[in-house]
Amino acid sequence: VNVQLLLTPHTLDHVGLEGKTVVVIDVLRSSTTICASLLAGARSVIPVTEPGEAGELRVKLGADASVLAGERKGVKIENFQFGNSPTEFTPETVAGKNVILCTTNGTRVFGLTAGAASVFCGALVNVTEVAEAVAGLQQDVVVVCSGREGGFSIEDTLCGGLLIDRLAVKHRQSVILNDAAALARLLYRERKDSLQEAIAQGEHGLYLESIGLAGDVELCSRVDSIPVVPVLKDGRLVKIDGQ
Amino acid sequence: VNVQLLLTPHTLDHVGLEGKTVVVIDVLRSSTTICASLLAGARSVIPVTEPGEAGELRVKLGADASVLAGERKGVKIENFQFGNSPTEFTPETVAGKNVILCTTNGTRVFGLTAGAASVFCGALVNVTEVAEAVAGLQQDVVVVCSGREGGFSIEDTLCGGLLIDRLAVKHRQSVILNDAAALARLLYRERKDSLQEAIAQGEHGLYLESIGLAGDVELCSRVDSIPVVPVLKDGRLVKIDGQ
User: Fold this and answer.
1) What's the whole-model pTM score?
2) Contact residues of A toward B, CB < 8 A
């Protein structure tokens, strides 16, 4: 199978997605928050691009059935119930509810995946489970790193590289990588014994530490700690069948 | 000094360029063509974004004083005298003339560098000379990889990594790298014994080979083969003082 990685979502509109499996990665923090929410029993996570869109959707779904969550520059959006810290999403806060999530980098990418055969949410916390689900489909794969403010992000690239490494093992190495996918795998292999440190010392990791969120960075770096596979169905992320 | 690398030009508008040295890299092929033109005795190379702009500029400068060169999808633009192959630019064709150059990826980036203290054109063919010129200025550095159709390109990233490696040696390692600069340096170090092969087997290299331009790819991969330092002055690339 062909495995294509995009270091940022900019070129996603040049890539034909028909018949392909897409994995959207935003390690810090929306992908991790999505996994945490579904683990906590949320009915779904609905990714949206703008805060206004989130508010309208909540009115439509009913205030009891949904919660508003999201950030701008890492900080909770005013009047929203939750920010974008995975620790905020517990059975007490979100069980049985739809989490309407609006973040700077990650959630908007799901809106660009129209036409794909399957769309998953990937993070370090669920990477092995996602690799299992993706490999089972035997389709070409497009791994989209959400990046940070339009640019490359080391944590998403490391996660993409780890995912590709897992896929190569499952497909017994018969994967064809684009240049960026090969680069991501190289980066992962170089840093695999110090993933947490590489992420904490990266630009986004240092920024989140500077606003008091070092704990989130550490939590988001724990490989396979939340083995949930979120899949996009009708615009909502839900647990894959069987989970 | 701080050395920041951008894998693509997308985020250039987020970066304050005041007081900084910018190096624009487009290994395949515009940076190499610019070096070849100046080596051949061109008075200047004027980078432009659109073919129409190029034509108007030629009228303004006078047809005798200038030539039109450029490509779209790797192929010479209709009615232009030259494409974007470094081999086309010889003393016979361009000595004493202004080369108005319009390419898909590289030349437009020069138009985004307003405000920078100095702007150089970097390629593999002149990388050591550029590192020398940049290090001499003792300013913060922004290395802009032109990339390919909006995405990452392995040849520009390798060249950026090599440039940064040279700068680190000249500054005796006292350089602070952003995440992408560290990634580029890692990629270069991993591939340094097989640079030509890595570029020829990359997406852009394979594309150029497919349209009969494998010779250009090989020429553009020869480190330090055209030791000319193009610097931007009033919108024109000319040889740095003393060359």
Assistant:
1) 0.92
2) 6-8, 10-11, 14, 149-154, 157, 178-180, 183, 186-187, 190, 202-203
